[in-house]
Amino acid sequence: MKKLLASLGLVLGVATVSQAAMAESAVDKVVSAGELRVCFEAGYMPFEMKNKNGEFVGFDIDMGKLMAKSMGVKFTPVNTAWDGIIPALLTDKCDIIMGGMTITAERNLKVNFADPYIVVGQSILMKPSLAGKITSYKDLNDPKYTVVTKLGTTGDAATKKYIGQSNIRLFDTEADGALEVVNGKADAFVYDLPFNAIYAAQNAGKVVHLDKPFTYEPLGWAIRKNDPDFLNFLNNFLRQTKGDGTYDRLYQKWFESDEWLKTVQ
């Protein structure tokens, strides 16, 4: 009987722990607080930017607002420097990262990712004078070329891995890095395809875009570990928006149209 009671107590203890763990889900906290705090770094076109009125806009912003609406809470933007965005999540400064974050093994050791919501890759912006001379990232792997990218990003990692023989310079923002090429201070800029495509359109004649990605990079929403309820919610939310056409409408708005360009800073 004592063994039976002990076993029963153990089972009840496990159940209590499980219930407590479930109570800690970010989903419950978000609903209770009445707000979904979303971390991102403004400036990554067309995912998150500021418009001329100082409002945050972009694909991720719209998805975040839609997610908050589906939860019955308000959307609270948390603009955060990229090198501190995972620490901000882990210290409860926000509930989720929706900032065009590439899913990597290194990041996955610190956070959990929902299923990829879009796939991108690294492409190259280069000086017009190099058109025809440089046809692949491999051609830049030479000390005579100066290649720039954004610090702490997958562009940083890809440049060091695939173009490591070049003279690599790192910048705090993607805009500063790309401007080095426009100003003739660098030969090429390595960064995510969506940003480079838009930047090239805005700076026609000033840069040439090698638009074939040389990496495979799925982007995902990041949350704190040990939260299966939130992960389940996110994956089902993504399936629903893709299934009912909402995702496609937002994709067309931000990736297939350039109407929004005139509204941003």
TrEMBL record:
Keywords recorded for this protein, A-Z: Signal
Span of the signal peptide: 1-23
Span of domain Ionotropic glutamate receptor C-terminal: 35-257
GO CC term, one of those recorded: cell envelope
SUPFAM superfamilies referenced in this protein's UniProt entry, alphabetically: Periplasmic binding protein-like II
Domain Solute-binding protein family 3/N-terminal, residue spans: 35-258
Predominant subcellular localization, coarse grouping: other
InterPro entries xref list: Iontro_rcpt_C (IPR001320), SBP_3_CS (IPR018313), Solute-binding_3/MltF_N (IPR001638)
GO molecular function: ligand-gated monoatomic ion channel activity
Subcellular location: Cell envelope
Family classification: Belongs to the bacterial solute-binding protein 3 family.
Listed PANTHER family: GLUTAMINE-BINDING PERIPLASMIC PROTEIN, MEMBRANE-BOUND LYTIC MUREIN TRANSGLYCOSYLASE F
Descriptive protein name: Amino acid ABC transporter substrate-binding protein
Species in which this protein is naturally found: Proteobacteria bacterium 228
